[in-house]
Design a protein that fits this description.
Radius of gyration: 19 Å
Number of strands: 0
Low-confidence stretches: none
Order of helices and strands: HHHHHHHHH
CATH architecture of the largest domain: Orthogonal Bundle
């Protein structure tokens, strides 16, 4: 993609994410996105075909960003440690890109349904995490199946993240502390005794940010 086309695409998606975050789905029109991005509506239609194409692109970019964040976590010979680090990287990504995360999982735009191709791309980020649980299972470190363990750890963290992004007071906003404490409780419960050693707590919580 030519640089100027990539620039226009990036500006459009950033504008759409800002509008969705500040005004909700009601503020997400092609005209509003074009004005926010400093582009013409014709340009928006040229690159995306309309609002649905923009939301689809946000969905895909969100999962691509998550996949990149997880892939950046160093792989060690200790899969339980890797699961901990992947979980923390996952939480960081969700809190720093909340609008994208909501598009990925809560469908805030009425009527939006990702295409089969986009759903397949979204599953690639899940494989990064799931494959690490498979490594742990192959090494005899788990007391339940890798599939069940992955779903248990993911759903717990995801639930907390969605509550925090929704502003639920009971969930607080110290994501790292909550995620670390959850992992320190659940990983020993699903692994053989002594297999999991928690990493050192850096003492810095995560907080939400931009889009």
């Amino acid at each position: 993609m030519p640089v100027e086309d990539q620039n226009a695409r990036t500006r459009t998606l950033e504008a759409a994410a800002r509008l969705l975050g500040s005004e909700g789905p009601a503020g997400l029109s092609v005209r509003a996105i074009a004005a926010e991005a400093g582009l013409s509506t014709m340009g928006i239609y040229h690159y995306f075909g309309g609002k649905d194409g923009i939301v689809e692109a946000l969905y895909v970019d969100g999962f691509q960003g998550l996949e990149d964040a997880l892939a950046a976590v160093e792989v060690t010979d200790d899969p339980l440690f890797d699961i901990e680090q992947l979980s923390l990287a996952y939480a960081t990504y969700a809190r720093t890109r909340p609008t994208y995360y909501e598009i990925m999982f809560s469908r805030p735009v009425p009527g939006f349904q990702p295409s089969k191709e986009s759903l397949a791309r979204a599953m690639r980020s899940w494989r990064v995490l799931a494959d690490t649980f498979v490594r742990a299972e192959e090494q005899g470190l788990l007391t339940i199946s890798a599939a069940d363990a992955a779903l248990l750890i993911w759903s717990s963290g995801h639930g907390i993240l969605m509550l925090q992004l929704a502003g639920n007071a009971l969930a607080g906003d110290d994501t790292e502390r909550i995620v670390r404490n959850g992992l320190r409780t659940m990983l020993p419960a699903i692994s053989v005794e002594g297999a999991y050693t928690p990493s050192a707590d850096p003492g810095a919580g995560l907080s939400g940010a931009a889009s």
